[in-house]
Design goal:
This protein is of the alpha/beta class. 47% of the residues lie in helices and 23% in strands. The chain has 3 domains: 3-75, Winged helix-like DNA-binding domain superfamily/Winged helix DNA-binding domain (Arc Repressor Mutant, subunit A, Orthogonal Bundle); 88-160 and 256-277, Periplasmic binding protein-like II (D-Maltodextrin-Binding Protein, domain 2); 161-254, Periplasmic binding protein-like II (D-Maltodextrin-Binding Protein, domain 2, 3-Layer(aba) Sandwich), CATH 3.40.190. The strands form 2 sheets. Strands 3, 4, 5, 6, 7, 8, 9, 10 and 11 form a 9-stranded mixed sheet that branches. Strands 1-2 form a two-stranded antiparallel sheet. Strand 1 and strand 2 form a beta hairpin.
Amino acid sequence: MDTDQLKTFLEISRTRHFGRAAQNLYLSQSAVSSRIKALEDQLGTPLFVRNRNDIQLTPAGNRLLNHAENILAAWGRAKHDVAIEEEMSTSLAIAATPSLWDIAMQDWLQNLHQRQPHIAVHGEVMETESILRRLMEGSLDLGFTFEPSQRPQIETRQFTSISLIMVSTSNQQSLDQALNHNYVLVDWGLSFAINHARHFPSLRTPGIRLPLGHIAKAYLLNCGGTAYLAESTVVDEINNGQLFKVEDAPIIERTAYAMFSTLTQPEDGLQAVLASLG
């Protein structure tokens, strides 16, 4: 089976549009259609229901989703393991949610390389459910999310604590002014949403909702407004006067977690990393 066909299948299942999938993959639409037809011919069943402006997965397509993700993950892991340099004694497959890559993972990776230079790392960006599924399937060694797992087969350890502070492009704003003038709501996960609602029960639904902190910060700097952002990511902007802390706004703390499967014995590389987490 051609892995490019599986990549194309997953991109169409994500976008539900052959044209957008072609653009994202830098292919012609005819090439995308050809790959899907070849994949359907190999499997002997249609994968998509093609109605105008409505691309849906068939039952077979839905069943293929997890298999396609696992095959591509295993192939990527195999290529990484085979190609690592001789001085690298082990490899580690990790994944984190997009927000954590923005805030904490880059520093963590740099520190890991300094402490354990013999460990090769294959990193991916995933949502929490995909991380948990891949941990259970054994195609991922370590996952990082904001939400701890309740599954008995997944062990969870605290990774880091992140302070979310309210910042604004206007100086000396009161909390009420900040919340009622160009307030941007950032998706920092379920726990943040619960705390945010508890602190601001009468807040009207903001006109702008954004999925990631770095997108929200860019929006503020270009368009103005107020949002909760990770304190560590706005230090420079506060120091140079581009952003200002809303002093009477509550600080909302988020805990990030590292998770790994207990179904198999951790290899030496993972054991060394887990020891550094405490």
